[in-house]
Specification:
Layout lengths: L4 E6 L11 H5 L3 E6 L1 H9 L5 E5 H5 L5 E10 L6 E5 L8 E5 L4 H14 L4 E5 L12 E5 L13 E4 H9 L3 E8 L7 H19 L2 H8 L7 H11 E4 L2 H16 L14
Parallel strand pairs: 1-2, 1-3, 6-7, 6-8
Antiparallel strand pairs: 3-10, 4-10, 4-11, 5-8, 5-9
Helix pairs in contact: 4-5, 7-8
Bound molecules: the ligand C=C(O[C@@H]1C=C(C(=O)O)C=C[C@H]1O)C(=O)O.
Keywords: Lyase, Menaquinone biosynthesis
Function: Catalyzes the dehydration of chorismate into 3-[(1-carboxyvinyl)oxy]benzoate, a step in the biosynthesis of menaquinone (MK, vitamin K2).
EC number: 4.2.1.151
């Protein structure tokens, strides 16, 4: 019998509607684990996962990667959970701290700063356990659950990067996609079946947004109304023609700044 596929999903609230009932649907076919987007990307690349919900820029950086579902994390306007917090006017940012969990938004903020102000700030990391107050930088990019709470101090400018991109380009933005690496131990029929399962979980999740919001809100310090609005109005979960155009546009702009990762092939893939 072939070993179960190893599937990795993002550990943030934004992914709850995509993984609704997923474990049950997968049964013995696959294992499901959760992690930060950047770690999922590294684990997929190193062959520690077979399929994962990874940052879109990582997909753009590896031509051998295959999209396995039209279930995605995207937005068509303000996204709420991807924010630039700047202590200085954005055109004066010299040192920028990037959330360690991010790859796509980390590139997106650099694309926007370049296109709007011709600025290429020095980049430093914002560790996952580090508060934005404690980093020595003019501005901080934060994503995921921690970016959803009001920042604890005064910032000169706060950007919602979903909103900024959508207004700048008049296109949706795709943050993450379900990707299979090449060489996995699964037939085409099994990948097609997985694709159906991921879509069914998304569809079921979208039909259960109130229930998910009710279940998750309090433990994340949010009201169920706000969390429901995040799922229903900020996030968009289907890769349609607009999202594909947005992804192609992001590819072009990030590539022109050399922000697409160049992956050397890993020496051994287990
Ligand atoms: C909207 C979000 O999308 C995410 C942003 C990602 C990135 O910046 O690399 C990757 C996966 C998504 O979880 C968010 O995390 O808030």
């Amino acid at each position: 019998m072939q070993p179960p596929l190893r599937i990795g999903a993002v550990s943030y609230l934004n992914t709850k509607p995509l993984v609704h009932g997923l474990r049950e649907r997968l049964g013995h076919r696959a294992t499901l684990s959760f992690n930060l987007p950047s770690r999922l990307a590294d684990d997929l690349h190193q062959g520690k996962l077979d399929v994962a919900l990874i940052p879109s820029i990582e997909y753009l950086g590896d031509p051998s990667y295959q999209i396995v579902s039209n279930a995605v994390i995207a937005c068509r306007g303000p996204v709420w959970s991807v924010r630039l917090l700047s202590r200085v006017p954005a055109q004066e940012i010299r040192r920028l701290a990037l959330d360690e969990g991010s790859r796509t938004s980390a590139a997106l903020v650099q694309v926007l700063l370049w296109e709007m102000y011709q600025r290429r700030p020095e980049i430093v990391p914002l560790r996952i356990d580090q508060s934005p107050e404690r980093v020595d930088a003019d501005a901080v990019l934060m994503i995921g659950d921690r970016a959803m709470h009001p920042p604890p101090r005064y910032y000169r400018e706060i950007w919602d990067l979903g909103d900024r991109w959508c207004r700048h380009c008049e296109l949706p933005f795709v943050f993450a996609l379900w990707i299979a690496r090449s060489g996995i131990d699964a037939s085409e029929a099994e990948v097609a079946e997985l694709s159906q399962i991921l879509q069914a979980s998304r569809d079921q999740g979208i039909a259960s947004l109130e229930q998910i919001a009710e279940r998750e809100a309090a433990s994340h310090g949010l009201t169920k109304e706000d969390l429901h609005r995040y799922f229903a109005e900020n996030l968009h979960y289907t890769l349609g023609p607009g999202e594909k155009n947005g992804l192609a546009e992001f590819d072009r702009r990030a590539r022109s700044l050399d922000l697409i990762p160049h992956h050397a092939p890993p020496s051994t893939k287990p």
